[in-house]
Amino acid sequence: MPVAGPRRVRWGVLAVFLTPALILLTAFVIAPILGTVAISFECKHGFCLKNYVDVITQQSPDLALIYPPGFGGPPPWGALIHNIVWILIHVPLTTMLGLIIAYLLKDTLGGSFIKSIIFIGMVIPMVVGGLIIRFMFDKYVGIVPKIFQFLGVKSLAITWTSYPQTALIALILGSVWLWTGFSMTIYAAALETIPRDYIEAAKVDGASERQIFFKIILPLLKPATLVVVLMTILWDLKIFDIVFVATLGGPGGASTVMALVMYMYFARELDFAKAAAVAVLLALLTLIPGVYMARRAVKG
Amino acid sequence: MVRKSTIRAIIVNIVAWTIGFIWVLPFIGLFMTSVRPYSEVVLKGWWSIIGAHFTLKNYYEALFNPFYNLARGYMNSFIVAIPSTIIPVFVAALIAYAISRFSFPLKSYLFLTLVLIMAVPQQMSVIPLFFMLRDMHLLDTLQGLILVHSSWGIAWIAFLLKNYFDMLPREVEEAARVDGASDLQVFFKIVLPLSLPALASAAAIQFTWVWSDFFYALVFLISPKNYVVTQRIAFMKGQFYVDWGLLSAGSILAMLVPLILYAVLQKYFVRGMVGWTIKG
User: pTM here?
Assistant: First the structure.
């Protein structure tokens, strides 16, 4: 029997399959998204861009997006800058670590056990993840400051999340610990799809292990790398929970992020229009990796 | 003489197990802190086990002290997470099947919309939803939160299931249709049973995400009696004094449910994660 392509069906049948999803999506997903866009342009007299101008030029350290006073020194920088710093440190670290670990664990005794441990970071609530980060960097009970104390580095034998110089970097390092499970899993799955013959053939031709890794394996992993990088960027842009519980953006705005600034405008300032403007800016940023992934997905 | 490859294997194993140890260390620390009196942990450190005293007091406090009442939070989290898993998986399966098998106008736009929704941050929806739920008298109710979670789960689950349906062989469905089965019968009696692994993946991940959600709960649940688990442990932390004994016990309780689910359904978690992202 020839395999049929998509079929035309009666409207009634189609309605049964589509309606429940369309109702929920329209009411609770699409309408609120459009609503947020509309609110972000709302001013006393009709529509305007003032909310955007205000949130972008905002200088209060705990709400600023890009332009707090003293920019260039230690944090606080703006929340958007923090997100970008986060991406610049987190993405390469977590991608490389995930790849190295996935590659090492292929030939390790009990490798799948270690894999399931590392993946746990993806399963636990991020609120707990944030608390654990704070815990690990706590002066009294955390192991990181203890190690620096042991090494004699007094300046780092502190509660990292309580000082502007270290709060952001503590969160970023913690996020590497939480998120590497994802990149490792994607790489492990991709590594499994590489045919053994390729590697055997290269070995027969006298290629060294290093050559095999860089010339054969790495190029074949390109699609996986793309997925890991895009998803990690998305996650870093949306990051909220771990910041909320570990530092609440503090001290003095040294670890604010876009999503948290949006919440601050919404829940603390009760300025819904500005909160909406920050949300729209954040959504525009997530659309960059989002559109890229959508193009890949639609192409099939 | 020891062969070079043996030495290499030993080094790889040592490095790998060291990495594994580093990764699990925070959990060990958290656990050790949770089962000992906090005064002792502060004095000696959770890593020193000589003369350690063990107690479940922290857990008891976290669960039943009326200030924290994680027991109530547990109940609320289950009440939210179970329907917020069943509803979107079912609804998304329907629309995913239609996208996979039927041809209809605007189909490619519908699919594109679903994919784009997956990238939209939660912050983009809460302000209008807050007022909508208020007008529907669903603000500060678990039902309202269920509606929001269910709706926002549809897009990614539909995407995952559509990919899965695309891979299913169509011969069985065609044969059933020739024998006079309707589209709905084919869907319920043939496609859904064949898709159990994908449905399990979607359900496991969606449940975990809803259980772990903090932002929606933070915005939509206002009275402390309605707080879910994640909210309760987030507010357990004092601003200046931090009782890590209590917090660590609370953290462990909060992650216990997803961890058990993960231990039982590990295969489905990993497959879902991979299938959702790679086979785009």
Answer: 0.92
